[in-house]
Automatic annotation (TrEMBL):
SUPFAM superfamilies: Cytochrome P450. GO terms for biological process: organic acid metabolic process; xenobiotic metabolic process. Keywords: Endoplasmic reticulum, Heme, Iron, Membrane, Metal-binding, Microsome, Monooxygenase, Oxidoreductase. GO terms for molecular function: heme binding; iron ion binding; oxidoreductase activity, acting on paired donors, with incorporation or reduction of molecular oxygen, reduced flavin or flavoprotein as one donor, and incorporation of one atom of oxygen; steroid hydroxylase activity. The lineage of its organism: Eukaryota, Metazoa, Ecdysozoa, Arthropoda, Hexapoda. May be involved in the metabolism of insect hormones and in the breakdown of synthetic insecticides. Its cofactor is heme. Belongs to the cytochrome P450 family. This is Cytochrome P450 306a1 isoform X2. It is found in: Endoplasmic reticulum membrane; Microsome membrane. Gene3D superfamilies: Cytochrome P450 (1.10.630.10). It comes from Dinoponera quadriceps. It is a peripheral membrane protein. Its main location: endoplasmic reticulum. Heme binds at residue 338.
Length: 392
């Protein structure tokens, strides 16, 4: 299909000079926030992540029952609030009405975008009631969330205090460029769309991967025990931190296997060709929409032995180190791969390590666990219950 020429905002759907400019800005912000290999900025980022991880563990411990709980609300609140902190520079109480609405909006948006996906290929479907209502819901949600972002921006400006967040960095850059008479791509519409992209992508993919991990280790207690035994052997009585990540091979392998087996975006993110090219025997004209089928790559038997089985050991090399097979693309590939991949790894590792250090996770005896999931724009687990038994 030939892509239509259009001006888009944000980062995920941006293209051309807008995309280059904003990706450079976002990458710089991530480094300033602490997405670096070492140093005080990384230490501060770890502290921010651990604050929400510890809140999550406390809530799971207080809510745990012998019959199990669905951890979604707890995980969504804690991981979402971490992204609130990093993106907007503010956090919410779990029962805050605005925050409840935002969580609901995100969950519904992910489902609706998946339903609306065929419109990329068959635009006339928008005239059918089913797709028309979905598009109305998506547009209405976007407009309402942008009005909320405007309020948050105004609150930030009224406080006049230094906050380490994307919002603060963009606002400062936009003001400086406007004062210099050259706002460029730093406009209000771009501001709103970029905030939405960063928050949505930051929460949904990492949250979904963590949910799948907890579900799979509950169903595979032998693999869970290997992870916990390794932590006990290497850490003794202390809690895991980022410096321990290279040594916790079993945990890293399990996370990688979940990213492979339950690709968060199984049909990938649409791309467009910038020039006429060829893929195999096919001529692909300039401007064609190309969608990388991540699921097919991650379950291709020519790359993966028994591809539909949960086997973390496939990511452990013979010398005991972590293996990174060529066909493993959890954050896509190329220039447009996920700009926040290292931040996502940090968050996912710390949440997973601390939760598995604190609990033995199991499925209730009366539960029928579904490991297939539901596919919107992301592949998410169906509602389920897990038993969190304290290891202390």
């Amino acid at each position: 299909m030939r892509a239509r020429e259009r001006r888009t905002n944000g980062l995920i759907c941006a293209e051309g000079d807008l995309w280059k400019d904003q990706r450079r800005f976002v990458a710089g912000c991530l480094k300033n926030l602490g997405m670096v290999k070492f140093g005080t900025r990384r230490d501060k980022m770890e502290e921010r992540i651990l604050a929400t991880v510890n809140e999550c563990i406390s809530k799971l411990r207080s809510r745990a029952t012998v019959d199990g709980i669905d951890p979604l609300e707890t995980l969504h609140h804690c991981m979402g609030n971490l992204m609130n902190d990093l993106v907007f520079g503010k956090v919410y109480q779990e029962d805050d009405e605005v925050w409840r609405w935002l969580r609901h909006l995100q969950e519904e948006g992910v489902k609706h975008i998946g339903v609306a996906g065929p419109l990329n290929f068959l635009p006339f479907l928008r005239f059918l009631p089913r797709y028309g209502k979905v598009m109305e819901s998506l547009i209405d949600g976007k407009l309402k969330s942008h009005r909320l972002y405007e309020t948050i921006i105004d609150e930030h400006r009224a406080r006049r205090e230094k906050v380490d967040s994307f919002l603060a960095a963009f606002d400062e850059e936009m003001r400086n460029r406007t004062d210099a008479g050259n706002a460029g791509y730093f406009t209000r519409p771009q501001f709103y769309h970029l905030l939405a992209d960063l928050f949505g992508a930051g929460v949904d993919t990492t949250l979904t991967t963590l949910r799948w991990l907890l579900l799979f280790v509950a169903v595979h207690p032998d693999e869970q025990k290997k992870i916990q035994d390794e932590m006990s052997e290497l850490l003794g009585q202390r809690q895991p931190g980022l410096t321990d990540r290279p040594a916790l091979i079993r945990l890293e392998a399990a996370i990688s296997e979940i990213q492979r087996l339950r690709s968060v975006t199984p049909v990938g993110i649409p791309h467009g060709t910038t020039q006429d090219t060829q893929i195999g025997d096919y001529d692909v004209p300039k401007g064609t929409m190309v969608i990388p089928l991540q699921w097919a790559i991650h379950t291709d038997p020519s790359y993966w032995h028994e591809p539909l089985r949960f086997k973390p050991e496939r990511f452990i090399a013979q010398d005991g180190s972590i293996a990174r097979p060529e066909a493993f693309l959890p954050f896509q590939a190329g220039k447009r791969m996920c700009v926040g991949d290292e931040l996502a790894r940090m968050i996912l590792y710390l949440f997973a390590a601390k939760i598995l250090r604190s609990f033995v996770i199991s499925a209730p005896s009366d539960a029928c666990i579904d490991l297939d999931g539901e596919c919107g724009i992301t592949l998410v687990p169906k509602p389920h219950r897990l038993v969190f038994t304290s290891r202390e």
